[in-house]
User: Fold this.
Amino acid sequence: MNSEDVKAVRALLSKPQRIVIIPHKNPDGDAIGSCLGLWHYLKNLGLEATVVAPNDYPKFLKWMPGTESILNFEKQNSQALEVLEAASLCFTLDFNDLSRVGQLTPILLKSTAKFIMIDHHRSPDNYATITYSDPKMSSTCEMIYHFITKLDGKDKITEDIANCLYSGIVTDTGSFKFAATTSTTHRTAATLMEKGADNALIQNRIFDTNSPERLQLLGCALKNMVIIKEFHTAYTFLTQEELDTHNYKKGDTEGFVNYGLTIESIKFAVIFIENKEEGIIKISFRSQGQFSVNEFARAHFHGGGHTNAAGGKSDSDMSTAISRFTKLLNDYKDELNS
Ligand code: 5GP
Ligand code: MN
Assistant:
């Protein structure tokens, strides 16, 4: 964030505001962690702020300090709507495009609030008064750390803020192992630990929450995996029936896509997950090295994200989506073989 943006944010926060903080739909640890980290900071400044999530999020995130104050637009609709309509300032966190907030999109499009975007996805859209976008950052939580320290210094990072932000960094870096992890990420995490982030507890709460059904669902996804050697690609899928049989709960498939990349020589891993209720196939893309899944998802599956991690969707059925995908691989033969 440059010094002009810092000045502009300070000016906005120096006036009374009704602040709403919004993560993307199906929020993950980085989305929830960044919203709550920012929420604690604003509350500690004496400002009025509310987090409104477009929909529910996994149980393994529901321990974070402040989680009980989040309004779920699907469940607490009228209360959330009231907050959204009264908002004078709106922070949008961990997404780059207003189409990423599901049912909140039309509400935000007609809102008269000023917008501040803080996000690390590529190609940010141009809807905000202040856009703090940095695709080199590991996570939005890392950006919230820089946002707070630039505005106010490290003293304002409380233990609650530290626990929220550490959670998002751990989520988006896969516990500091993905390529987006930098020396700055480690320094940020170290400071957050000094401020009271409980690293072992956080890792345990986010990653060690398996139910037997979830592990069996993972087994199912691994069994369904198809390896296409000539394109260095591994894809898998889960049908609605398979999800139902394993008593699927939100968040259960988190991380499944990464297993494909652990196979030697695989550069591109994909999972297709059927969602009968929404009538779509939700797709997650991961890559190792130069191959940009952000561009791939954008070009072919209404999606986007980062160079090595992106998402998208298909409106067709599972077999049509998969066969379209496998045919497309031919066009990327050189990139996948380089
Ligand atoms: P995941 O595969 O874990 O759902 O998402 C991987 C990354 O891509 C995340 O940073 C997520 O925010 C982004 N992403 C997931 N789905 C979509 C999508 O439909 N559109 C866009 N633009 N980004 C997505
Ligand atoms: Mn993120």
Notes: The two ends are 35 Å apart (CA to CA). Residues 30, 94, 120, 139-140, 172 surround manganese (II) ion (ligand 2) (CB under 6 Å). The chain is about 40% helix and 20% strand. Residues 213 and 247 are 7 Å apart (CA to CA).
